[in-house]
Specification:
By secondary structure, the chain is mainly α. The protein has one domain. Helices cover about 75% and strands about 0% of the residues. It has 6 helices and no strands. Helix 2 packs parallel to helix 4, helix 4 packs antiparallel against helix 5 and helix 4 packs parallel to helix 6. The protein is rod-shaped and about 150 Å long. The chain starts with a helix and ends in a 34-residue tail after the last helix.
Length: about 250
């Protein structure tokens, strides 16, 4: 009986260890499954970015292309791990560890996509501003025959387009900003020359007016005499009614 008791105790310990092992294995499997769920969630977060990259009509940069490609690789890898979890036995802790690394890779890829797409949007925005500034220069008209360099900024803008076509967003943005500066500077110079000519014309007009006013004032004055002499005859002779008589003789009364 004593030997049977020891044997039963040994069996009980083995069963306890087996049950503990099964429970631990089950918990490890759940942890691995949760890690895979997190990976898939992180990968799903980047799908909208990939869709933007595919539909924005902006050439992808090398970094953006690598990030998208790496995202696809991670998706395939996660699908393999997910199918591996369906097996009855496996090294679940190792699977969980691998999944954690994949989460980090997925976040890195998504961050790279966000950074590159933001740079692409900024480059295109600056190029559009440059195009607006160049059109403003081309549409500007002068009342004084000022002829600006209508093509100012076009060279930098063409270089920006070439850089964008290569996916070099940083260079494209810098060149676009330079194109803006060239177009704005040329338009500003033209407007300054226009203003100077207008000011000179106004000054000449005022000078001519002042000279005309002065000439009119000096030619319209009166002499000091009233136009009548102070002495001499008044135009009438002395009275003809002299003392010699009134024209009637005495009546003799």
């Amino acid at each position: 009986p004593f030997g049977i008791s020891l044997a039963l105790e040994s069996v009980r310990r083995d069963l306890n260890e087996l049950e503990s092992g099964i429970d631990g294995d089950w918990q490890a499997h759940l942890a691995a499954e949760r890690a895979i769920d997190e990976v898939e969630a992180r990968l799903d977060e980047a799908k909208s970015l990939i869709h933007e990259a595919e539909t924005d009509r902006i050439p992808d940069s090398p970094d953006l292309s690598r990030a998208i490609e790496h995202h696809g690789t991670l998706e395939n890898y996660v699908a393999e791990i997910r199918s591996y979890l369906k097996k009855p036995r496996g090294d679940w802790p190792k699977i969980e560890e691998e999944a954690r690394h994949v989460v980090d890779d997925a976040i890195t890829a998504r961050t790279m996509m966000e950074t590159e797409l933001k740079a692409a949007r900024r480059a295109v925005s600056e190029m559009n501003r440059a195009a607006d500034d160049m059109r403003a220069l081309q549409r500007w008209r002068s009342s004084y025959l000022i002829r600006p360099k209508r093509g100012a900024g076009s060279s930098e803008h063409q270089q920006a387009r070439a850089a964008l076509a290569e996916g070099n967003y940083v260079a494209a943005r810098k060149l676009a900003v330079a194109a803006q500066g060239s177009a704005k500077l040329e338009l500003s110079r033209a407007k300054t020359r226009e203003s100077k000519k207008r000011a000179a014309e106004e000054a000449a007009r005022r000078t001519a007016w002042n000279n005309t006013s002065s000439s009119f004032g000096s030619s319209s004055g009166f002499s000091s005499g009233g136009g009548f002499s102070s002495g001499g005859s008044s135009g009438f002779s002395s009275s003809s009614f002299g003392s010699s008589g009134s024209g009637f003789s005495r009546s003799g009364w």
